[in-house]
Design goal:
- This protein is mainly alpha-helical.
- The chain has one domain.
- Helices cover about 70% and strands about 0% of the residues.
- The protein contains three helices and no strands.
- The termini are far apart.
- The mean pLDDT is about 80.
Length: about 70
């Protein structure tokens, strides 16, 4: 069941990531978003590294929110 939620979060964040890259190309070098990009090709496997994957997804979400926030320090 955890794999469903990880895959869904990854799918949604990668969709937003593609849009964000078009709007703010300098996000291509952001470490949290680069880590998200590395998940794109590896896929999600529910095992001991699931917590690490969740952390990557969570960090990417935090960065995306910061970039979209009007008070963000870009």
């Amino acid at each position: 069941m955890g794999g469903y939620y990880l895959n869904n979060a990854q799918f949604r964040l990668l969709w937003v990531r593609a849009s964000l890259q078009r709007l703010a190309p300098r996000t291509k070098t952001n470490p949290a978003l680069v880590a998200l990009d590395t998940l794109k090709d590896s896929g999600i496997v529910v095992d001991a590294s699931s917590t690490e994957m969740w952390s990557i997804l969570n960090n990417a979400l935090d960065e995306m929110i910061n970039w979209l926030s009007p008070v963000s320090k870009k």
